């Protein structure tokens, strides 16, 4: 379950956010907007099964290093400098 970790001051963070701090999963090569987008994409669904599916997809994509939410990454189809 994705439950939340809460601090003494009442701020809650999902436990999966620590993944972005690890250097061995490829997340450090991702731009900040992708990290933030992944977090909201995982937190937004109401059903736990959907959250778990999004989390599993994110982990697979970070390990592979060539996808971002089902799309090729980095985007090699777009010419550089445009």
UniProtKB/TrEMBL annotation:
It holds the Pfam family OmdA. It comes from the Bacteria. This is Uncharacterized protein. It comes from Enorma shizhengliae.
